[in-house]
Design goal:
Number of strands: 0
CATH superfamily: lambda repressor-like DNA-binding domains
CATH class: Mainly Alpha
Shape: globular
Order of helices and strands: HHHHHH
CATH architecture: Orthogonal Bundle
Number of domains: 1
Length: 95
């Protein structure tokens, strides 16, 4: 009930439902970043090592892990290759 009330109040204040999509996108980016960090640490890589092995910039990896960006599938593929982790399995997480 409280969540519905909060959603209604935000809509009344903004007149816009797009905040719901943004909230879901933020949760996805956070889950994706947590997934990458977990796999990187499990593989024993530092941020610098993963950047060197994948060809993805250090800054991009940090931004993904901090949920500041939504990477392309190509970037995820490069990271998975460096981590020796199957790309289809990377996306098996809940958000």
């Amino acid at each position: 009930m409280i969540n519905k009330l909060k959603i209604s109040v935000v809509f009344l204040l903004t007149g816009n439902w797009s905040f719901l999509r943004m909230a879901k996108d933020d949760k996805f980016k956070e889950a994706l970043g947590n997934r990458l960090r977990s796999l990187r640490l499990d593989a024993g890589f530092t941020l610098v090592e993963l950047a060197e092995k994948s060809g993805v910039s250090y800054r991009t990896i940090i931004d993904i892990e901090k949920a500041d960006t939504r990477p392309s599938v190509e970037v995820i593929r490069l990271l998975c290759n460096a981590l020796k982790y199957p790309l289809p399995d990377f996306f098996k997480f809940k958000y």
